[in-house]
Amino acid sequence: MAETENVELQLAKLPDAVGWPPTPDLWPAVRAGIARRRRRRLLLLLVAAAIGLALAGGAAAAASVGLRGALVQRVPRLPSPSPVAPGPAGSRLVLGDRYASLSAAEAAAGFPALAPASLGPPDEVYYSSDSGVLTLLYLPRPGLPATEDPDVGALVMEARASVDGASFGKLAGPGTRVQPVTVNGGPGFWISGAPHGFFFYGPRGSPDHFRLTGDVLIWNQAGLVIRIESGLDERAALAAAGTTRRPPV
Amino acid sequence: MVGRPLEDSDEDLVERARRGSAAAYEELVQRYTELAFRTAYLTAGSAAEAEEAAQDAFVKAHRALGGFRRGSPFRPWLLRIVGNEARNRRRAAGRRAAVELRTAERGDLGVAAPSPEAAVEAAEERRALLRALDALGEEQRQVVGCRYLLELSVEETAAVLGIPEGTVKSRLARALLRLREILEPAHCG
Fold first, then answer.
1. Are A156 and A136 in contact (CB under 8 A)?
2. How would you classify the pairing of strands A168-172 and A70-74?
3. Is the CB of residue A204 less than 8 Å away from at least one CB of chain B?
4. Whole domain around residue A163: which residue ranges?
């Protein structure tokens, strides 16, 4: 015990003896970060207002279909998409923080991810703590054509399928078809035709970053809501989704 | 006698910052920059990531001020956010925190030594202790770092590391025993 106390005494002398890296002046970057958040908040309010307007305008004809964690609503006209920030696909598509591995992203997300085995390992992995969505990004390659975004072959996005609130929101205009499908025994929809509107629901249930997207397969599996956005046709998308399971560790 | 203006309390600054005062929040940031940066450094493992983690933590803390419980201490609340940010960055990088602790380069560290020989001996003792700290497992090194290098309370250490206070105490006790074993192997056979 005395020896342990001796170690404690030695440790107590250490704070002044450690060669810490020089402390940077953080305030200019913090001030800029606060200003950026304010601008983003204003943008979110505008997005929410535009989506609200689109839904209100189509109230008479509005119909919504839902899965756990996702809501698809019919509207007569889509609002304008949010401005796209320049940069890599992860930034442009507001996918959140990029992680070095799927297991690192899962640790941040707090749920085990599923992945379509037929697509192989993802090229990039993201998780957004704002939306709670984990995203696997696959680059275009033979057999996996580019989506509207030339840097993206497929996006597999997943979140906990909550019955209390949705993670994904979709606005389907007149030219968009919404067909019920079954994927791995779970309910889902194949959404195709004219591009439809897609947004995340933020932590307080407010819409965040509205963009237009092409064909999408979305379904519930193992407590998750999963969407695959790709250039694949319905049959190929369903085939890929059918291989969705826990990836090997 | 020349008076010195009293320093605003954290509580006053937080209250003013909540009402929109940038100057009040700037003062809080300046007050806690060093502690936040060093706390993030211990967890994130690099100065560059520690800078970004501390910076993002201050931005997130500002955003969350509306939900901050009045009357509760600001420091552990901020340190919890710093710890989260630093851990997320370390996870994102997919590696363990590999902070290598070094002694400061200054020659006037610690208490004045009675002789040059004693000063050399004291410096070597500190270096040996830091080497022993580096040799600890990550969990033990972090808890010792928070308690002894950053001089955080048990409550603050628990907030930074995201673990219960009881775990801080038990982990610290094991770390001290392990340090003793490393420093004095001859006595621990």
1. yes
2. parallel
3. no
4. 2-245
A113-150 pLDDT, tens per residue? Answer: 999 999 999 999 998 877 788 999 999 999 999 988 88
pTM value > 0.80: no
Instruction: Say what the ipTM of the complex is.
Output: 0.82
Tokens 């979110």 correspond to what residue?
A: A44
Which are the contacts of A174, defined by CB distance < 8 A and separation ≥ 6?
A: A76, A194
A13–B110 C-beta distance less than 8 A: yes
Chain A residues touching B130 at Cβ < 8 A? 14, 17-18
With contact defined as beta carbons under 8 Å apart, do A51 and B73 qualify? no
Q: What is the pLDDT of residues A59-118, one digit of tens each?
A: 434 456 678 888 888 777 777 777 676 778 888 888 888 887 888 888 778 889 999 999
Task: Evaluate whether B150 touches B39 at the Cβ level (below 8 Å).
Answer: yes
pLDDT score recorded for residue B108: 45
Residue numbers in B near A8 (CB within 8 A): 148, 176
Partner B contacted by A4 (CB < 8 A): yes
Count of domains forming chain A: 1
What is the fold of B111-189? Arc Repressor Mutant, subunit A (1.10.10)
A21 touching B (Cβ < 8 Å): yes
Q: Tell me the CATH architecture of domain B8-97.
A: Orthogonal Bundle (1.10)
Domain positions in chain B are: 8-97, 111-189
Tokens of A105: 């992203």
